[in-house]
Specification:
6-stranded mixed β-sheet; Dipeptide-binding Protein, domain 3; alpha+beta; 7-stranded mixed β-sheet
Length: 511
């Protein structure tokens, strides 16, 4: 038998297997309705910063790689990948014949265009600094993408698995303009069918999808309901199937209802007050005093209903645990805090600070903000708490450090990689470093850790970084938030990543 005959038979067999597999995929059925607490301002993965936006991007767009519900890296568009011997190029082979939902080809040129847009300083992506080790991306041929690195980076695979790195159709973006941020054209199993800002948005199956995670639902409806009580009411009446962020006082009620349960999956969300490192906040004694002023256990039990554990390092649990190092919890010591404020040269009430918190972004965020105000005032610091809507909060925390007039802001961080987490928040000059923290020691270690591939060396390097950050107190370290998701028993297969991104790959809804 000739090689050509072998090739033809192999091709026919592959086609038969593919056709049979497709025939075995059940048709999408049922509608899932989800109540979320915050409205993503954009679905553009280069600018979105909310888990609810990540959920949309995960299902509407595709990446070269993706994280599964346990934060393991799996192939999506990629078929194989390799580093060059000098570590300066990373080459990825992608699936052949893929298209965006509008029919445009999703080839290596499209992948390169998407990444080069992310890297373009004129675009101003909030994640550009995170990908600074990538100089440019090129297409070697229709199925080969080459990442040209400015420096060796042993963490590239995790970077490319983030929803920030999902592939957008830059041609459709050029045609659609601002509309693209609300109805992005992707290649994922779903498409955005409709969007009403501040109210609702709907996903429907992408009829051109040919990947490994086909749509199981006829529609996914998201309702934007910031108020806790209103979200719970919708869950209790059966108007929604899933509601995120069940407040502590509602857990027992929801759990006791027929056909309802509360899921508490692991969360890596590290919730802190991120300090703007200028003015009085530049004094380490002030930062230490503010940390000592907080009764974390008291707030966790009294306000959060136990839905958190006190911080013992900046990266949350699940952030590459093999590289994560923990320290003794910060004690509650208001007397020592008062003494430190006095040592810093401030009489009681003389030091005034302003803190900014969102309303409805994190569990009991507004109440926590008010409690922190009281804690700081108890040590002689005059504190003003500004609880603002999501849009105002985003605008404030996105300002350059030199323009910020607040002294700290509440933020939650949840990312799968240690480099991803620490580089963007603590590398001096990076756009996502919104506190102005700068340490030549940390900068050097971050560069060393990024280039290192040996896990034992990585643990030593990232351990040093975590210790230095913990000791410098650039945040008022608070806790790791526990997820609480209300879900009807008629829903099966829902998985939730530790970064609070929902996976609908296996979801079914029964009557």
């Amino acid at each position: 038998m000739t090689k050509l005959t072998h090739s033809i038979l192999a091709s026919m067999l592959a086609s038969l297997i593919s056709t049979t597999a497709m025939a075995q995929v059940p048709a999408p059925a049922g509608t899932l309705t989800v109540a979320v607490g915050a409205d993503p301002e954009t679905f553009d993965p280069h600018f979105n910063d909310l888990p609810t936006g990540n959920t949309v991007d995960l299902h509407v767009l595709e990446g070269l790689f993706r994280l599964d519900a346990e934060n393991n890296v799996v192939n999506e568009l990629a078929t194989e990948h390799a580093f060059s011997e000098d570590g300066r190029t990373f080459t990825v082979k992608i699936k052949e014949g893929r298209t965006f939902s509008n029919g445009n080809p999703l080839d290596a040129e499209a992948v390169a265009a998407s990444f080069n847009r992310l890297l373009d300083p004129a675009v101003g992506s909030i994640y550009r600094g995170l990908y600074s080790s990538i100089e440019r991306v090129s297409a070697e041929d229709p199925t080969t993408v080459v990442f040209h690195l400015a420096e060796p980076n042993g963490h590239v695979l995790l970077l490319l698995s983030s929803t920030n790195a999902t592939i957008i159709d830059t041609k459709a973006l050029a045609e659609m303009g601002a509309e693209y941020s609300r109805k992005p054209v992707g290649s994922g199993p779903y498409m955005v069918d409709s969007f009403v800002g501040g109210e609702r948005y709907r996903l429907v199956p992408n009829p051109t999808y040919s990947g490994d995670f086909p749509a199981t639902l006829e529609a996914i409806d998201f309702l934007v309901v910031p108020e806790d009580g209103s979200r719970m009411a919708l869950l209790e009446t059966g108007e929604v199937d899933v509601a995120e962020r069940v407040p502590p006082e509602s857990i027992e009620t929801i759990s006791s209802l027929d056909g309802m349960q509360v899921m508490t999956p692991p969360s890596m969300f590290s919730i802190n007050m991120e300090i703007v490192m200028k003015g009085p906040m530049g004094d380490p004694r002030v930062r230490e005093a503010l940390n000592l002023a907080v009764d974390r256990e008291g707030m966790i039990q009294g306000i959060l209903g136990g839905l958190a554990t006190p911080s013992v390092t900046m990266p949350g649990p699940g952030t590459q645990n093999e590289l994560r190092v923990t320290f003794d919890p910060i004690p509650f010591d208001p007397e020592r805090a008062k003494a430190l404020i006095e040592e810093a040269g401030y009489a009681p009430g003389e030091l005034s600070i302003t803190m900014v918190c969102p309303n409805g972004r994190y569990i009991k965020d507004a109440q926590i903000c008010q409690a922190l105000q009281g804690s700081f005032q108890a040590i002689g610091v005059t504190a003003a708490a500004q609880v603002v809507d999501r849009g105002t909060w985003t605008e404030i925390v996105s300002q350059p450090v030199a323009e910020r007039t607040d002294n700290m802001a509440m933020l939650g961080r949840a990312t799968a990689g240690m480099d991803y987490t620490l580089y963007r928040l603590f590398k001096s000059g990076v756009s996502a470093n919104t506190t102005g923290y700068a340490s030549p020691e940390v900068d050097a270690l971050l560069a060393e850790g990024r280039a290192e591939t040996d896990v034992a060396r990585q643990k030593d390097i990232y351990g040093q970084i975590q210790r230095k950050i913990w000791e410098d107190r650039p945040f008022v370290f608070l806790w790791y938030q526990t997820q609480a998701i209300g879900i009807a028993d008629r829903v099966t297969g829902l998985e939730i990543q530790p970064n609070e991104t929902m996976h609908f790959d296996k979801v079914a809804v029964s009557n």
